[in-house]
Amino acid sequence: MYTKMDLPSVTVLPLLIVVFTGVYYVYNEVMRFMSKSMVQNKVVVITDAVSGMGSECARLFHEGGARLVLCGPRWDKLESLHDSLCSGSDPSKTFTPKLVLLDFSDMENISDVIAEIGECYGCVDVLICNSSMKVKAPVQNHSLEMDKTVMDVNYFGPITLAKGVLPLMITRRTGQFVLANSIQGKLALPFRTSYAASKHAVQAFFDCLRAEVEEYGISVSTISHTFINSVPQNTTPSKTPPTNPLWAYISCLLNTHGVSPNDLAHEIVRTVNRHRREVLLAHPIPWIALYIRSLLPSFFFAVVAAGVKDGAMAEQLK
After folding, report:
1. C-alpha angle 124/129/130, rounded to 5°?
2. d(CA 14, CA 119)
């Protein structure tokens, strides 16, 4: 039997839950409002706006009132994205996006593209480099020509564009570069020789750039994420599961611990608002793998090599 003194303690937990829920709701509403207000009127360039993540990112920035410059290799997809953004938006609160054809696999016209981007609004506040070309193959089956193409799309294209818009930012002493990079810019895995190399290279470039442009009030942010779940996960077990138990466990976690385009787009918006320098968007297993790679490299190499010998690793890696 409870006494009168015991009654208040019984209601403490429900009361705390109600208070916490209310505070959490208010916090989310405030942060959502601030996210929109902080990007309002900013000129935001997205290099691959027609990708799943790029289109989600464009939607969030468009709703926030940013002045978008949407880039992509296909005009029909750019127009489709343009129409979808404008059809459900309030013209008094949003800007009509500008479209620019951009294909990093064709570097011959990159100077014209840079000039066109600069002419859209006369300045660039945020450049989001999210273009990426993925190739999976054993190194002996990977042509040198394909290596060069991957480097153009993943490295030379983004850095050439960054160098092109940098003078606009230095003149105004403000701006932000955001690199949506793969975690393989930090952790290389087999059958990704060209891809991992290009991601390491572009990561290093923007890390160096960060220190060089800080004196001009320009910030550089890098987001290292795991593979993007562009389609719902296939829960059907593999027909040829790895025979190595340890690698079977790791590859299973790698396949199920990706990031959705929507989550990555929201992280990009948060990174722009908070000017975070570096973000690792990954589940615990990739985090642990990074630490093992640094602290116990021999063990890491042995586990990965065992996975390669298994023969099914090429099908398991994403």
Report:
1. 140
2. 58
Backbone dihedral angles phi then psi of residue 39, each to the nearest 5 degrees = -100, -5
The C-alpha atoms of residue 185 and residue 193 are separated, in whole angstroms, by 11
Is the pLDDT confidence value at 7 over 90? no
Q: How confident is the model at residue 254 (pLDDT cuts 50, 70, 90)?
A: low
- Against a cut of 0.70, is the pTM above it? yes
Compute CA 21 distance to the chain's CA centroid, rounded to the nearest angstrom.
30
Asked if residue 40 has pLDDT above 50, the reply is yes
Residue 129 CB neighbours (<10 A): 24
- Sheet containing strand 218-225, edge to edge, reads 98-101, 67-72, 43-46, 126-129, 175-182, 218-225, 278-281
The catalytic position among 2, 25, 27, 195 is: 195
Least reliable range by pLDDT among 100-109, 191-200, 252-261: 252-261
- Catalytic, 195? Answer yes
Give 269's Cβ-side CA count (13 Å radius): 30
